[in-house]
Structures are given as structure tokens and as C-alpha cells.
């Protein structure tokens, strides 16, 4: 089938960043999103104004497009599967999402594939919590099984009282996992096409602050053997799930060089934003290529390296930060992406900036320049 109209569930910045690629490829984007001020409304040829987990709205979306994809995975899979059975085409298919949406199921899925994950355990209930964790030592990490993002629902636990309090006060299922003493966090973006071809982007280092991604460094300074191990992990995951589309995979690396998977995002990912300006083909174009059944394209870096810094809200405001944006844009080889959100809140992703590097050693001073402009540090 010839695909021209792509339905996108979710209208945030990830959908917005598909805009240029969709024009280039001659595709239309029809976006399902709850708010008419959401970033991707401006690039959509049509919108369905509704929450992303409203499957009735997705049914309407399906009548206006050839295939549906996701920029937000917090959907109602059971309800969507009825649509899939009726012939609505989802790319990735729903079976590629279903083992991933619950962090405990995701860990089990990866472990069953023989892939390296931290030790983990589902917390069955807030009753008798001490006996459930009797073989565990503090610190460990407590995670809400569903709907976590940007570290929401992830807690480092140092004592039983804190654990019991969080679990008993939140009416949501949890898992615990070993605290990984990582030296760095890494990520890889991978795309799989309708024909099963897979391409991967350079492995990057991601730096989190308060569990929110703050910076991405491309490429990561790791050995070629480590790169090969991570690329093999990506292939195994995308092949076993028979993914059509782009996924982001977050990993930990320890001082001993041990690699563990932290999390799979079944969509384009913040760790791949550098590809917009630093690679031959962006992760967004690559995703649309896969979803539209087109051949995949070159993922190489066009420069020796790049840094991407997220511009996170640091106050409650309606400012559009014109002056700071101008100052940031004036940095040589800088590409500023401003998501056009009308409200700023602490931690909210308002935009990002990528700076292309001729010399990797310039990295720290550029990060310092960006953060001193943005955060007035
Ligand atoms: P989210 O899904 O909300 O992004 P993550 O599970 O990716 O949450 O965790 C957010 C951050 O918390 C990670 O990037 C990492 O810095 C830290 N973290 C998560 N799991 C662990 C772990 N098992 N050990 C050590 N740190 C962790």
C-alpha cells in the first residue's frame, strides 16, 4: 500500500520534530493530542483533539490516515487492539508495545531474551513489605511499573520506612531493582523497517540530573567492542519485537565495563535529538521512513561530534525567553529547537540546543556556556 497520511498518537515535541521530515518525504501528519496548543498542532495537516489514551478518538484518527504511529506510549492497548483486529494498521504493531509498557513486564521480557538487566523484583503489596525484600540490601531503586517518565515514579530507597511510606501511599504497582553503580549512562536509537532492515545511530552518553536527561554527548567515548555489544542488544530487541519504527534504548555501563539495559522507549527518544543536526538522517525522518514503508537511510554523523543540551523549565512562567534564545542561537555551530510551549514549569522540556563539534575537547566549555546562558549559572 502507498502510505501518504500518518496518524500520530501524541502531539508533543517528538511529533513536532517529525514535521520537517514529513514535508521532505511528502507525507501528511494527522495528530491526536489533548490540547490545541500542543507543539505538533502547528505541523499537523489535521488534528483529533483528545487524550492519547482515548481509543474512540484513535478510531476517528484511523479514518483519516493510512497508518498510525506513536509519539507517546501511554495508550490504552486493550482498547486499541480491537481496532487493530478490525484492520487498523499500527506501526509499530501493538504486540511490539505490550511487553514494554509495564516496567516489570519489560524487565521480564528482556531477561527472557537473555539480555543483561539489573536484578529486579515486583512488589506484590504494601503489606509485609519487609518479608518481600528480605534478600535485598539498601540502597535499591523503587519504580512505579507504569507511566513513569523523566524520573517521575523512580525513587532511590535507603531504608524500609521510606519504602513502606511510598508504596502504601501511592495506589500503583511497583517493582524494585538493584541500584546500579554506573559510571555513565548510554543510549542508542535503532530503527527497523517493514522488510526487517535495522539501522542504528552512534551510541551516545546521556547525563541526567534529578533523573531528567540534561545533556547528550555524541558519540559516547566507549570501546568498539562495547559499541558492538550495544548494537547487538538493539538488533535483538527490535527483531524479537518485530518492530517497525524507531526505538530508544537506555543503558548503564559500570566501572568494569559491564553493560545493563535500563529502559526501552518504544518511539523516538530525547537521546536521539542530536541526529536532527548532526547526522545525515534524523531519527524522526528514519521513523517516518519505517512507518511509511520506505527504505531506511544513512545514520552517520556528519561531524566528529555533537552535544545536545535540554532547555528545561526552571520556574513557573509564560515567558518565551526571547533574549536567551537569541543568545544561545549565536553560539557558533548551534541549532536551537524551541518547542513553542506556552507555559514553563520546573523540569519541563521547553526546547533543546545541539552544538556541532569539530574538536571533542570543546565539549565541556560549550556545555558550560549554554548552561550559564540558560540557567544564569
Ligand atoms: P523514567 O522512565 O522515568 O525515565 P528511569 O527508570 O529511566 O525513569 O530512571 C531515571 C533515572 O534514574 C535514570 O536515568 C538513572 O539515572 C536513574 N536510575 C534508574 N534506574 C536505576 C538503577 N537501577 N540504578 C541506578 N540508577 C538508576
Characterize this entry briefly:
The protein has 377 residues and is of the alpha+beta class.
Topology of this structure?
Layout: E1 5-9, H1 13-16, H2 19-25, E2 28-33, E3 46-49, H3 55-63, E4 67-70, H4 77-85, H5 94-97, H6 103-112, E5 120-123, H7 129-132, E6 140-144, E7 154-157, H8 160-169, E8 174-178, E9 182-192, E10 198-200, E11 204-209, E12 212-218, H9 224-240, E13 245-254, E14 259-265, H10 275-278, H11 283-291, E15 305-312, H12 322-329, E16 334-338, E17 349-357, H13 363-375
Parallel strand pairs: 1-2, 1-4, 2-3
Antiparallel strand pairs: 5-8, 6-7, 6-8, 9-10, 9-11, 9-13, 11-12, 12-15, 13-14, 15-17, 16-17
Adenosine-5'-diphosphate binds next to strand 6 and strand 14.
Summarize the structure in words.
- It is a single chain.
- Helix 2 crosses helix 11 (283-291).
- The strands form three sheets. Strands 9, 10, 11, 12, 13, 14, 15, 16 and 17 form a nine-stranded antiparallel β-sheet that branches. Strands 3-2-1-4 form a four-stranded parallel β-sheet, with helices on both faces. A four-stranded antiparallel β-sheet has the order 5-8-6-7, with helices on both faces.
- It is built from 13 helices and 17 strands.
- With 377 residues, the chain is an alpha+beta fold.
- The mean pLDDT is 96.
- The protein folds into three domains: 5-90, Rossmann fold; 119-178, Dna Ligase, domain 1 (2-Layer Sandwich), CATH 3.30.1490; 182-375, D-amino Acid Aminotransferase, Chain A, domain 1 (2-Layer Sandwich), CATH 3.30.470.
- The structure holds adenosine-5'-diphosphate (ADP).
- Adenosine-5'-diphosphate is lined by residues 118, 141, 143, 148-152, 154, 177, 179-180, 185, 208, 211, 250, 262-263.
Amino acid at each position: 500500500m502507498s502510505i501518504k497520511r500518518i496518524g500520530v498518537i501524541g502531539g508533543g515535541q517528538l511529533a513536532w520534530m517529525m514535521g520537517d521530515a514529513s514535508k521532505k518525504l511528502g507525507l501528511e501528519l494527522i495528530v491526536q493530542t489533548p490540547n490545541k496548543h500542543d507543539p505538533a498542532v502547528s505541523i499537523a495537516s489535521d488534528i483529533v483533539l483528545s487524550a492519547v489514551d482515548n481509543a474512540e478518538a484513535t478510531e476517528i484518527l484511523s479514518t483519516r490516515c493510512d497508518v498510525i504511529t506513536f509519539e507517546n506510549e501511554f495508550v490504552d492497548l486493550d482498547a486499541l487492539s480491537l481496532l487493530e483486529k478490525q484492520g487498523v494498521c499500527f506501526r509499530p504493531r501493538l504486540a511490539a508495545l505490550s511487553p514494554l509498557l509495564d516496567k516489570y513486564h519489560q524487565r521480564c521480557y528482556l531477561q527472557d531474551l537473555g539480555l543483561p538487566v539489573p536484578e529486579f523484583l515486583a512488589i506484590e503489596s504494601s503489606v509485609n513489605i519487609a518479608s518481600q525484600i528480605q534478600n535485598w540490601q539498601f540502597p535499591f531503586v523503587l519504580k512505579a511499573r507504569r507511566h513513569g517518565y523523566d524520573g517521575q515514579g523512580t525513587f532511590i530507597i535507603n531504608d524500609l520506612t521510606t519504602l513502606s511510606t511510598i508504596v502504601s501511599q501511592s495506589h500503583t504497582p511497583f517493582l524494585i531493582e538493584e541500584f546500579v553503580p554506573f559510571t555513565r549512562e548510554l543510549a542508542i536509537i535503532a530503527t527497523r523497517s517493514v522488510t526487517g532492515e535495522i539501522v542504528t545511530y552512534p551510541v551516545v552518553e546521556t547525563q541526567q540530573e534529578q533523573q531528567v536527561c540534561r545533556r547528550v554527548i555524541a558519540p559516547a567515548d566507549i570501546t568498539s567492542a562495547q559499541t558492538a555489544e550495544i548494537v547487538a542488544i538493539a538488533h535483538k530487541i527490535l527483531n524479537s519485537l518485530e518492530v517497525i519504527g524507531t526505538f530508544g534504548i537506555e543503558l548503564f555501563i559500570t566501572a568494569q565495563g559491564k553493560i545493563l539495559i535500563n529502559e526501552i522507549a518504544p518511539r523516538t527518544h530525547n537521546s536521539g535529538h542530536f541526529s536532527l543536526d548532526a547526522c545525515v538522517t534524523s531519527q524522526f525522518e528514519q521513523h517516518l521512513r519505517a512507518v511509511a514503508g520506505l527504505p531506511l537511510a544513512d545514520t552517520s554523523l556528519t561531524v566528529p561530534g555533537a552535544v545536545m543540551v535540554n532547555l528545561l523549565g526552571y520556574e513557573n512562567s509564560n515567558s518565551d525567553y526571547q533574549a536567551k534564545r537569541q543568545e544561545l542561537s549565536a553560539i557558533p555551530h548551534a541549532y536551537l529547537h524551541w518547542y513553542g510551549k506556552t507555559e514553563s514549569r520546573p523540569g519541563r522540556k521547553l526546547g533543546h540546543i545541539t552544538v556541532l563539534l569539530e574538536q571533542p575537547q570543546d565539549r565541556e566549555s560549550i556545555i558550560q556556556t549554554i548552561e550559564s546562558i540558560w540557567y544564569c549559572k
